[in-house]
Amino acid sequence: MPEWPEMDTYRRLLSPLVCGRTIQAVEVNREKTINEPVDVFQSALTGRKILFVERRGKHLLFHLDDGHRLLLHLMLGGWIYYGPESEPEREDSRYQVILELDDGNRLFFGGLRLGYLHRLTAKGAQEHLKDLGPDPFDPRLTEEAFTKRLGKRRGKLKPTLVDQKLVSGIGNCYSDEICFDAKVLPMAQIPDLSEETKQRLYHSMRQVLEEAAANGGYMDHKFSADDTFVGGFDEMCRVYDREGEDCPRCGTPIRLEHVSSRKMFFCPSCQKEQ
DNA sequence: AGTGACACCCGAACGC
DNA sequence: TGCGTTCGGGTGTCAC
């Protein structure tokens, strides 16, 4: 669920808090979340300094002072919490991994059912991310580069937008929001799209992701005790999870359809096939 | 190359 | 209310 805006929000919030901090202790409550034996993971991380935090697509990379990286993917329903103590209503055991920092705060990784936190070499991390497409805001991904890239694809628009090889970071929610903003149906066939529509998709992609990130994305977990920012975009979604509600543009009820077990929310009136 | 099916996992939602 | 069952959703992989 966490997509580009959610992960970039985490990166922005975490960077000033954890850069330069040393990991003092590591708690692992679910061994499958990590990629090596718990004792190896713990002793390798203890004493390591976090240099900086990088986002690649929906991944977060914590760069460590020994050249290794901690690679995080929240997948479905994962979240991050930061503070001296966990969220009051949540037991520590609900968190799969907890990193204790040298300033008395802790980084809590929760909801990692399919998500993971892997300790990798620089090479290992690179290998893991080798198939990721460009970032939506990569300066090399110009309007022309994007429309060309999209134009090479066949098939339906939505499955292509969520394909991390096309552009990295777009998932179920924002693909629907982008299609709505660009006034095109998510089930439209890419070869049918006009050049203008592909150009609109490019600008909608950047506009929607930027607006969502500026409002804290749609995460439903607080980042810290006094956090009122994360999740602010939840009520700003135009179509996602709004089946039956009025389209904010034309008033037609939003429709939900499934394509290969994937939800698509759209306005059947003001979003078009081309 | 696109499409669909499946496995992974477990909290949440649902049904009785 | 409470217990058992089903479902969802990103990604990787595999078959067609």
From TrEMBL:
Signal peptide: none
Residue ranges of domain Formamidopyrimidine-DNA glycosylase catalytic in the record: 2-116
Domain FPG-type: 238-272
EC number: 3.2.2.23, 4.2.99.18
Origin superkingdom: Bacteria
Cofactors required: Zn(2+)
Xref: Pfam families: Fapy_DNA_glyco, H2TH, zf-FPG_IleRS
Keyword Repressor: no
Keyword DNA repair part of the UniProt annotation: yes
Family designation: Belongs to the FPG family.
PANTHER family xrefs: FORMAMIDOPYRIMIDINE-DNA GLYCOSYLASE
Subunit structure, as described in the record: Monomer.
Protein name, UniProt field: Formamidopyrimidine-DNA glycosylase
Organism: Cohnella lubricantis
Gene name of the record: mutM
